[in-house]
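To whoever is on call:

I kicked off a structure prediction for a single chain this morning and the downstream step that reads the tokens threw a length-mismatch warning. I double-checked the sequence; it's 521 residues and nothing unusual in it as far as I can see. Pasting both halves so you can look.
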Amino acid sequence: MEFSPACVEPSTDGCLMKADRGHKKRKISPDVEMDIEFLYKAVPQLAKVFRIIDKIGAGTFSSVYLGETQMRDGRREMFALKHLIPTSHPTRIAAELQCLTVAGGRENVMGVTYCFRKEDHVVIVMPYMDHQAIVDIIGSLTFEEVRLYIYHLLKALKHIHQFGIIHRDIKPNNFLYNRKSKMYALVDFGLAQGTADTQIELLKDLIELRKAPRTVFGERDLNSCTPALSNTKHAAIRTELVKPSKTEDAASRKYSSATLPVRTQSSSQRPVQRGLTCNCYFTDRVCNVCLSRKSQVAPRAGTPGFRAPEVLTKCPNQGTAIDVWSAGVILLSLLSGRYPFFKATDDMIALVQIMTLRGSRETIKAAKSFGKAVVCSRELPRQDLRTLCETLRGLRPSPDNKVTPLPEATADSTDTYHHKIQDDTPTHRPTERTLKPHKKEADETPAELLCSHTNKHKHSGGNDTATRLPKQEKMGEEEDERGWDRVPDEAYDLLDKLLDLNPSTRITAAQALQHPLFKDL
């Protein structure tokens, strides 16, 4: 691909101008103008090729700009310029590039056109695809559009999984969708990891980077007491996970030595063999043997609300199945018309929300299969996925006692909710919190109470406000025209398989593409 030089064209008042789809120029904000100027200074060679006209995305590890260039044949073409933050590890940047060059450019996976580097600044140039955000169009999508969207997402996952790539951050924002042209593109491999047999050599190098000591439940967001669930009224369970330090006085712990099983010093220092349980196994207390265990290292990268159960429980052996789970969460959102579907402030609350949907017995059984023990003091029934989605869409009246609401944290209830995750033997203990189920209000169904995004609080930011469908009386013929009254059983069967709690039995992307839901594709 050949480029002709293109320079920045300043306006008469000194502000950079932006070209829209109609090739008209309009001013951009001063903040974006400063960011563009900084990028030109950081990577000067960009000015010889691109005219950067807008900033179209920003994340924790990168910013994305829209650049325009003139090809040698006279055509003007748009590109997405991803500027990686200088603090990114060189191996991580190189691994992302290798994922794009090896697996990208086909099967709905974004490719790479060029790459610029100036000292510690790296800019990855990719084809630009105009797309619509799911949060903006979810209320108007037809079932056929949803079916095609999931089909092409699974197609992209099958492709990258064949190369041994685990994307780790599957979500609608990373799977671009052009509704008009029916084009799709999987983007952002910044958190990608490799399987044991990955074909991406640099992903193998990242394994060494992950061996740095890190606690499993010691992350800051889990040990901090958040006052509210993002101002969500129907809050899930709040727990505080504490890892005692070596200098901590035993008498200062909530569970004093008088409540712990009596053990001698020699027994507390004795290593725990795999499969051997201690006296606090499956209880709400923790013994000295468990306190002496070393912290477990496990990958945790991903976006809250889309993490699989094995990620939430810090299972060290994570594979491509975590991407499939995330695809299932996306399908759940699209079928129910609610995005985001899960919204939790920490991993424990996220696990409780999954329990509320898939059932506590099923969650406990699945966790046991990959070496974790989950304790729940109350039995949560497994929800019927069709009933749940149709209720949330307003296609059927709320079935009483069919959907269990998430409890709301209070300080004056006698009903307690115990949750603990264990790795064969208990290693961490949550602080008890007294909780009580929220009383259903007249205008809210039990199904609505399942999801945290059904709160009545109004937020100014779009990310904090979940998309809700119109009231049932406003839907009628519109829902019929979009096909939501004729969703086949195969759609919910696939959803059930994608949201299999056990990663070893969860359907793969390749198997999902052979599902009867896609028989005509």
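Update from on-call: the warning came from a stale cache, not from the record. Cleared it. Sanity check on the structure: The chain is about 30% helix and 15% strand.
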